Amino acid sequence: MHPDHTPRVPAQRAVEVHHPTPLPPATVAPAPVAAVQPGSVPAVASIVLPDGRIVTGYAIDPTRPEPVTAKPTVSRTAVNVALGGVGFLAVCGGLLLLTSFIAALTAFIGQLIILAAVIFGGWIAVQVLGPNGHCGGTTVNIRRAVFKRNHFHG
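Above: the chain sequence. Below: its structure as tokens.
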């Protein structure tokens, strides 16, 4: 809807189709061909495929890779010794980490025990050395009691 609230039909445009116009053959001139002679003419080879087709092309000399020098052989004993040394070092490192972890855990537990003893000892000290006045609780009077002939005289 437009501001004046009247529906409008979209404008239709004319479609134009452009067709290319070919040039007349007289105006097209072939490009000059410059003959380039190679330094040496390669040999042409023809191959007959098993299905009877003939493929013709230039023969290319295959590039030969450089010869690989033979590597000296390593004895199995040397390989086993090397692998055993690596394994031994890995085990030693793991044991070193394990022992240091156990030592740290032992020290931590010892510190927790000392902390508990200090806190409990402080609580006991407050109970024993605290104020002598009675702050509530049960009062018990103790007096001398006499037992005569298995009979209590109080």
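The mean pLDDT is 76.
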